[in-house]
Amino acid sequence: MSNTNVAKRYAEALFRIAVEKETLDFLETELTTVKEVFQTNQQFLQFLQHPKVDADKKKQLLNEAFAGFSKDVLHTLSLLVDRHNESIVPEVVDHFITFANEANGVKQATVYSVHALSDAEKQEITNVFTKKWNVKQLKINNKVDPEIIGGVKIKVDNTIYDGSIKGKLDRLERKIVTAN
Fold first, then answer.
1. pTM, to two decimals
2. By CB distance 3.0 to 4.6 Å, which of 25, 81, 96, 169 could disulfide with 11?
3. 14 close to 98: Cβ distance less than 8 angstroms
4. Burial of 98 (0-12, 13-18, 19+ CB in 10 A)
5. Closest CA to 86 of 53, 45, 54
6. In degrees rounded to 5, what are phi and psi of residue 14?
């Protein structure tokens, strides 16, 4: 089974527990912190993945590093250590957040623009796309990309809405090439 499928199963199990215990937002916050630690601290991950380090020592490190976190999060991390799946923790978190967003009527959008978007611009994008996708909320992650020249490019799930000048120029170029 692929790592993506394994990560999705762990995330789904944790999501069901969170729904049952009504701790969805709380666990999402904790898991976001866990993901950040795993992605920014390479020595931490190397220690957890080292084959000669005993699983109990790995779990002890996790319990110390995430002291005060919920038992559900710590138990999931311990299971991942037991099954030598430490490297998929960020992916588990991503899937969990996707499940939580779907349950709460929220979509994540990455908006590429030439400059950082103002609050008014973000609100305008939110107004348009919450209606388009029939969701309660749109969480925008703005990335500055000077290569798009102007306009915006919006990525939601696997769909890209390209309203950038670069995108328009690329489409125009393809039309001209295919016309000849």
1. 0.73
2. 96
3. no
4. middle
5. 45
6. -65, -40
